[in-house]
Amino acid sequence: MAAFVAILGTMAPPRPPLSRLFTVLLAGVLAGLVLAVAALPGNLLLGFAAKAAVGSYAALPEALRTPATPQRSYLYANDGKTLITTFYDVNRTDVPLDEIAPVMRQAIVAAEDRRFYDHGGADLRGLLRAVVSNVSGGGQQGGSTLTMQYVRNVLKTDPGRTAEERAAATEQTVGRKIQEIRYATALEQRLSKDEILNRYLNIAYFGSGAYGIAAASQRYFAKPPAELTLGEAALLAGLVQSPEAYSPIDGDADAALQRRGYVLDSMVDTGAISAEEAARARAEKLTLRPTAQPNGCTAVAQGHDDWGFFCDYLRQWWLAQPEFGASVEEREQALRRGGYTVVTSLDPQVQATAQKEATRVYSYDNKRALPIAAVEPGTGRVLAMAVNRHYSLDPNPDGQANHPNTVNPLISGGDSVDGYQAGSTFKLFTMLAALEAGKPLSTGFDAPSRLPTRYAAEGEGSCDGRWCPANANPEWMDGYRMMWDGFGRSVNTYFVWLAEQVGQEKVVEMAERLGITFRADADATFAENDAADWGSFTLGVTATTPLDLANAYATVAAEGTYCAPLPVVSVTAPDGQRVPVGDPSCRRVLDADVARAATDAARCPVGQQSTLAQCNGGTATSVNRILDGRPVAGKTGSSERNATETFVGFTPQVAVAGIAANPDDPTDSVGAAVQAKVIDAVARVIGTAVAGEPEKAFAAPSRELIGDPRRPVERPPVEQRRPSEERRPSEERRPSPSDDQRLSDLRRWLERRG
């Protein structure tokens, strides 16, 4: 009977009127019986509870009799040997009860179980109070005692149990609640109240990553639990009911203070403190001294703090995987206590080159940064994540918000990092949308210096009230262009025109299809509501990240197969069983021929040639030299006033992106001069990634998507001027093929195709 009432008290989801009425009536019938039992003297009540428990202390799960020792999880590089770091429960340290301030012990009892010292594991009076409150609209209350909560916490986090068993420890069923009561009553037969209270305080979750009172007192107040004041103890005790919602660091500080007031009132009711003491504590201003949560990513192998950015990305990925628990809290515990062996996708050699190149362009203490990401096409596995920053919680000099130390996700984005404008690299999405719409690579347009569009605009960049984009270097860019040389020379007016032909909304949708995430609120709103009028989208005005950009280009390299970014190769549980989370998650998002055609044009920027030799100039021709003619493709990008400079390059085996920017100040222009350095840095990372790998050629596109490239050919000056946005005077250029050579190549190709 008591167990059934307990279910009513702890399972209180919203009910329709008839169901609520039924519960009220049923509760009324049971209330008399429960009150009769609850009115018994304390010793008889405890005896009743003991007899109600079926089983004994010896029959309890081992984790309840002997609390499980957390096991470390190990993270290795993709060779399975190079240790990156270990994760363990560094933010949970067991402390004896005499090292916990008495006010903390009193506060947790007052907040969670006022009759803790009077019941035998299951409090019938508390269960009745919860039933009455829940069904009468007096607020949601649980009927679980501290002992029952301890049982639940142990069973749902025990690394020795399966995921299903851990999930069963919190499911809302009569059977689970009866088992919880049985276990709690059996524990109370053997353990003293103080021992149960000590175990509870060492395992309870207090929010913001803090498990146990020792971690919580350090996390929120930077002190050991023995030194907690009354106000601090009341605040911490109040967090247990809803750790994430009440956390004054990550949740709602006002709600935390209100909850602190409730705990203080409860302590007055239990006689632990006087009303005057409660009033003084309530009047105290909330003063936090938050210390960063100890994180395995800040403890990577010595001399490799750059690995921390990849490690943090893996941790965020882990916390999103349901295989490791039903909630973020459970997944965090699984990582820190579960004893997993994780072989990550990080390639130490590629990472080392990426870090070397990032710091060659900008030093660690430079306010500007070059985040670089490398992704494997066809799997989405992330091979490297580098930036000229130390992944560290160490303080920075005054005025330097994010350098040389930071733990912000500068490469992958998230939290407060929306990303950076990637300029003309977004022309790829316009080209793909056009090809998918049936427009061949030979689609021609006489690109003017400025192109009046249908989009309204005012001020600079407008022509008679219309947006009027311009080419960065008219001498080198204006004239009749097709996709090959339009992409190779990065002709703004050609691609704005092309986007108008296929529809801006299709270009935006293409970018999203290839994994571009709109993290900035303004970008997300525009994409959802005004995509058809987002004329400047093709010029890369939205914020993105090197990881998103590298993965989008990797989709083209994989001939249209998109794979979600993946930081692991395998995850193995302590029992040797593989957890099914290491396999790539891929799907076809582009016709292979469309991807091949885009790749054909993307050979032009890097100084190589398309299938029919239609490339006649590129903005990153040093790449061909650095990779010694190995098949490669890519695209440069400069945002307005050279605020950022970007290069993405890819082969069939790897895609790499780097974006030079100031993460703290988007108005700080990095300048055009750094473009050449970014290009060379990305090319060298590609070189390391493909070193020793067989050379793979790109497949040629179909005749339908090539179209008919025969047209009047522009004859550029012998000494072509580089575009001002991407000028590199000393760069070697591949000579443009003659008209006769183009026609000869075309005839041979047509003959082969019949």
UniProtKB/TrEMBL annotation:
Domain Penicillin-binding protein transpeptidase: 373-678
Entry GO terms, CC: outer membrane-bounded periplasmic space
InterPro entries: Beta-lactam/transpept-like, Glyco_trans_51, Glycosyltr_51/Transpeptidase, Lysozyme-like_dom_sf, PBP_transglycosylase, PCN-bd_Tpept
Annotated catalysed reactions: [GlcNAc-(1->4)-Mur2Ac(oyl-L-Ala-gamma-D-Glu-L-Lys-D-Ala-D-Ala)](n)-di-trans,octa-cis-undecaprenyl diphosphate + beta-D-GlcNAc-(1->4)-Mur2Ac(oyl-L-Ala-gamma-D-Glu-L-Lys-D-Ala-D-Ala)-di-trans,octa-cis-undecaprenyl diphosphate = [GlcNAc-(1->4)-Mur2Ac(oyl-L-Ala-gamma-D-Glu-L-Lys-D-Ala-D-Ala)](n+1)-di-trans,octa-cis-undecaprenyl diphosphate + di-trans,octa-cis-undecaprenyl diphosphate + H(+); Preferential cleavage: (Ac)2-L-Lys-D-Ala-|-D-Ala. Also transpeptidation of peptidyl-alanyl moieties that are N-acyl substituents of D-alanine
Biased composition (Basic and acidic residues): 705-754
GO molecular function: penicillin binding; peptidoglycan glycosyltransferase activity; serine-type D-Ala-D-Ala carboxypeptidase activity
Domain (Glycosyl transferase family): residue spans on this chain: 83-267
Range of residues in the leader sequence: none
Family assignment from sequence similarity: In the C-terminal section; belongs to the transpeptidase family.
Protein name (record): Membrane carboxypeptidase (Penicillin-binding protein)
Protein species of origin: Micromonospora echinofusca
Upper classification of the organism: Bacteria, Bacillati, Actinomycetota, Actinomycetes, Micromonosporales
